[in-house]
Amino acid sequence: MGRDLIVVQIGTFANFVGAHYWNFQNELFGSAFGGDLSPESLYSESLRGSYRPRALLIDSKGSLGSRPQYHGSHQHVERVDLSWGGAASIHVQEKIEPTEFMKSIEDEASVEGVNAGLPERGLPFSEESVAYWTDYCKEVFSDRSYLQLDGTFHGHPPALFTTGQELVTTETEDDIVDAFRWQAEQCDNFGGVVTLCESDTGYTGVADSVLTALRDEFPGSPGITFGCAQRRRSPAKLHSGLNEAWLAAVCARLDQHLIPFSATQWDANTFQHFNLVDVFNPYYSSSTLAVGVEMASLPLRKKEQMSLLELVDRLRFAR
Fold first, then answer.
1. What is the dihedral of CA 133, 134, 139, 144, to 10 degrees?
2. Could you tell me the CA-to-CA distances from 35 to 189, 196, 302 in Å, in that order?
3. Following DSSP, what letter does each residue of 213-257 receive, concatenated?
4. Torsion over CA: 57, 237, 224, 311 (sign)
5. d(CA 262, CA 307)
6. pTM for the whole thing?
7. Within the chain, where are the H helices?
8. How many whole angstroms separate alpha carbon 217 and alpha carbon 193?
9. What are the tens digits of pLDDT across the range 120-168?
10. What's the pLDDT tens digit per position in 15-25?
11. pLDDT tens-place string over residues 166-178
């Protein structure tokens, strides 16, 4: 079984978790602590000698903050038909300026063959001010990694899985499969899919459509899914339960091993040693879930690598 993996992140909170996860990889990349790890399991090397994560990042529109907004494999520009001749007004969203942290990352990434890293002066932003996962993600992804769903907007996830299913049109599904196929072509030996999914909202319906399409395109590929549930100030408990149950049913149908991670019951006393200042702040709660993803997936990234199929088999200890 192959060792090259592709990470699929579905939903805003899943991308918050994923941003921390990729930051971990970035820190380990080339460090003394990463000597026993194989970067090829998650990264593809370009002809210029730089490395790019093999990832597909599916999120709502407006979720990329100061980064260019993409739709499928191409930047999406909406056109408005004003041929009706009546009075019209145009409302333009104010440009979101990148943080000083992101500017430093982009400057470093512009150096050929160099992977971006933290500036020595630390984090030049307040964690409480983080509004987008791109505000603190150090990795630089390929433009073809991004896909923003029509019919959604940042901060307003689909409420129920049925709504999420409707967001994945035939055109969107083709975009997703094409982007994933392009990532798979970068693999020397494709080994499977690691999925991070926002599990308490309608993004589980998106995951249903996405994972089904990928299974049809790459039959027999092993997969593991991390369900990521966020602590919210006004949770819709009935919808959350239905969405999480739906993700479990989807994973069972597609033979994907599901590991549910949830911050929904946390309070100020949870994980005190992690100093979670605000359990409702996705920046903090996602960082803790990312530690779980990091540890659970560690055997997949070691030089003496365990295959994804073997890891899933060991996790399914109940027969």
1. 100
2. 21, 26, 9
3. HHHHHSTT--EEEEEEE---SS--HHHHHHHHHHHHHHHHHTT-E
4. positive
5. 26
6. 0.83
7. 12-28, 100-109, 161-167, 170-185, 203-217, 237-253, 282-297, 308-315
8. 12
9. 445 555 666 788 898 889 888 988 999 999 988 888 999 999 999 999 9
10. 999 999 999 99
11. 999 999 999 999 9
